[in-house]
Amino acid sequence: xxxxxxxxxxxxxxxLSAGAAxxxxxxxxxxxxxxxxxxxxxxxxxxxxxxxxxxxAGATAVKAMSGVKVVEEERVPETIDVEKTMESMxxxxxxxxxxxxxxxxxDPHILxxxxxxxxxxxxxxxxxxxxxxxxxxxxxxxxxDEAEFLSGxxxxxxxxxxxFGFVAAKPIPQVLRNINAFTLGARSVDPTITxxxxxxxxxxxxxxxxxxxxxxxxxxxxxxTCHVDSPKVVIETAEKRxxxxxxxxxxxxxxxxKGYLTGAEWNWEALYPSxxxxxxxxxxxxxxxxxxxxxxxxxTSPYTALVPDAAKAKADGVKAQFMGAGYVxxxxxxxxxxxxxxxxxxxxxxxxxxxxxxxxxxVEGVIGSTx
Amino acid sequence: xxxxxxxxxxxxxxxDPLAAPVAAGVATIVIFGLFVSLAGRNPLEVYRLMAVGAFxxxxxxxxxxxxxxxxxxxxxxxxxxxxxxxxxxxxEGAFVIGGLAAIAAGLPFADAGAPAFVVWIAMGIAGMAAxxxxxxxxxxxxxxxxVNETISSLLLSSIAIAVMxxxxxxxxxxxxxxxxxxxxxxxxxxLIGNLPGMDVHWGLALGLIACxxxxxxxxxxxxxxxxxxxxxxxxxxxxxxxxxGMMMVIVTGxxxxxxxxxxxIEVAAVQGDANANIAAGYGLSGILVAFLxxxxxxxxxxxxxxxxxxxxxxxxxxxxxxxxxxxxxxxxGILFVALLAGEGxxxxxxWKARMSR
Lengths: 371, 357
Hints:
A: alpha/beta, Rossmann fold, 17 strands, globular, disordered N terminus, B: mainly alpha, 75% helix
């Protein structure tokens, strides 16, 4: 390994000139006259049965629209890579509308590109928009905790051990809100239910996710759900251990025919085509688009045959309220799992309440800690 | 050999080391071509698009160079210790801990309103010191405790990444970074900008300088000569009175410092803060770069550009040919295996010597 290998000046020059010869190649442009080109960027594989697949389903729906060309790139890290991917889609593919879908793409990457390309519209998933950003940056997100709440209700009807398990990536507000909504849903049916949470530390940790699921099964948990980028490992492991499962991001029903109950899913295939239509029509797109079940931004997996009628009736009743006048999940009094009151009696924290965006606690009934 | 005329000997000296990588490259092109054919794509179209995406325009060139920049520095993290016969694969950890130390050192200066270059110097020193200390630990463990440096550098790297995650999500977390735990960002004025006339940050220049300095150190100084003697035969070096242990610590430390500087640049030029994304795999790609460059500090430059180009063309393959991202990983895997397989083959002059025997 330490042989004295020298690279001669001649060899370097030869290499450089070969490279220069390549650079003379003309760039083929895929820009079709008049057609709108929309770019979708995913942080993971687009067939992950999870976050990325849900967005890719939205992209597929846009692809079906006439006069729209879709370009996609998967497994793009939240580094200089995503900046270059955006620029490449703009410069080489002629994209004028981009959906960089990972949360971590926003700051600094999308903000940097938005300043650089004021004529391109950037739609980011995550709800990070605020006043004062460039006007070509928009943000959208869904109140998926509504669907989590319903999953909790359904699961409460099938559990025998009254112990649920939740495999989660990081103790950040968005994840805590899902854990808490799932728990509150379950405990609205049976207050003796507990939810054991295990944090794996990152969005895609297949080995830890499998270990966590097995350890939950060993502790007597009989319902498992998760909040990681790809729920595939958790759901499949739980299925092997004979547990009930609730899905997340997309439907994992196909992975767990013996245990899948329902799940909280994104409904990007409804939102994306409507956003593209608005964009084509030149309508003003709001800076921040948010909504839950009622707005059709999130949905629940269809109940499987394992779900008893009583569970369906109860969950559908609450769902009707979400779809109607509204249902408040975080209605005081709510205590955290250390006994402190986090939402006072009489305080109703509805979905749009900005306080919920800063959630830093686990509610009573959750076994686990945020740090 | 001594019967050979000097010009032929010189030619052999150039061609010999190139033979194995070139053969590996050709083998890779053929095997990957078969692979994409099996996936139903025209291999010529794949290679044409790769050339366009990597080197086909000024935009593509800048894209390639930008992606090559961190690899120049992480490649040195493996290549420098290799001069002493050490196989270090902990560049990822050195890169990450370097980035974390850099932001920790830079923020107080930035808060105090120090000029940007002072902030950068503080960040650079801290990043290099942290990355250097991490890899030097592997060198020291090897010399004084007999611990295999490959394993220990890998484990130290995992520890460094875990420490970064813990600190970013705990003590140094910016309370405003709700759903993406990060440290406080550097002020915009303290971010490292682009090279004049280019859309590529100064990391490229620093990486090139580091490669040239590493080459000068290893090939043009007594220290480098001594280091390579240790690499050739560490017992003989000890017998000759060389301070082997100290030299191992210094060289592994320099390798780690290079990767640590890479981490500092990632924080100061790309991310603006430290977060989990600084562990993006640049350190791992650096191992590949160093091996492809056969551990030669100057050869790292074209190899890093080649790998940067492969990564830059990945998007075009996905978008135009609908190939999965894994295709590029397959290509890199084939390249690495082909090269390692080629390492064991005798060189051209060895063949000739064998034949004439």
